[in-house]
Design a protein that fits this description.
There is one protein chain. Helices cover about 40% and strands about 10% of the residues. Helix 1 (about 5-15) packs across helix 3 and helix 3 packs across helix 8. The mean pLDDT is about 95. It has helices at about 5-15, 20-25, 25-45, 120-130, 135-140, 145-150, 185-190, 210-230, and strands at about 85, 100-105, 110-115, 165, 195-200. The two termini are about 35 Å apart. The chain is built from 8 helices and 5 strands; from the N terminus they run αααβββαααβαβα. The chain has one domain (about 5-235). The protein is globular, with a radius of gyration of 18 Å.
Length: about 240
């Protein structure tokens, strides 16, 4: 994947986020879009070697429109500043956990898991964690997981800044309603999402062994994701 070309365009759209500039650079956009889609195709193929559930996916099932939905946003700029792909067995609009790659100058990352779960599913996930806490701890407290992703809510992921690693994007400040305040592993119940990520350099996706590294990151996060997906699947 020619990330130099992709990053150059994304820097341009970030500085000139308007229809005129985009139309003047439409051919460049089509070029980097095709370049990104070739990379996504490689990712799907590699993930399919250890996760057969995603083997049926096509690139179009995983990528998003570059045009922003500005109907309910105070930010009226028409275009995104990144390229992203969500490789999820049930589709990119599913609540189910999957694998995500994000290309944005200075904010590239690879993520595993799910986010933005509704309260009823979060409650079920928390109950499942409590009921099987030792299994859960085995998935998220082993050395590989902690070294790669860290502990709950130590990282930061915003539109403008992503930390080196992270496990959980947001967390409740208080104990979830209906759960014991003195629970020993309360940090896992306060989480509002079950997503882990690692940031990568802008040229990561053109390194010689980038697919091998991506496979390691995704394999490390997959047991945590599978645990949560067993709950989410009851709702889909």
């Amino acid at each position: 994947m020619n990330t130099k070309k992709i990053m150059s365009f994304l820097k341009g759209i970030a500085a000139n986020n308007n229809k005129q500039w985009f139309q003047e650079h439409k051919a460049e956009y089509e070029d980097i879009k095709a370049e990104f889609e070739r990379g996504v195709e490689q990712v799907i193929a590699r993930l399919s070697t250890f996760d057969k559930e995603v083997a049926h996916l096509k690139v179009k099932d995983c990528t998003y429109r570059f045009y922003r939905d500005i109907r309910f946003s105070p930010d009226k700029t028409p275009y995104k500043r990144h390229l992203g792909a969500y490789i999820c067995a049930h589709g990119k609009k599913s609540l189910r956990g999957g694998y995500y790659i994000h290309l944005q100058p200075g904010n590239c990352l690879i993520a595993v898991g799910c986010y933005w779960l509704p309260t009823n599913i979060l409650t079920s996930c928390r109950n499942e964690i409590m009921a099987n806490i030792q299994e859960w701890r085995k998935h998220v407290e082993n050395d590989n997981f902690i070294n790669l992703f860290g502990l709950p809510n130590e990282g930061e992921w915003t539109d403008d800044k992503v930390s080196e690693k992270g496990f959980g994007i947001t967390s409740l400040k208080t104990v979830p309603k209906g759960f014991p305040k003195d629970y020993e592993y309360l940090q896992y119940l306060r989480m509002k999402d079950y997503c882990c990520w690692v940031s990568v350099p802008d040229n990561f996706f053109e390194e010689a062994h980038w697919l091998d590294k991506l496979e390691y990151y995704c394999k490390t996060g997959k047991p945590m994701m599978d645990f949560i997906n067993n709950v989410v699947d009851d709702y889909e």
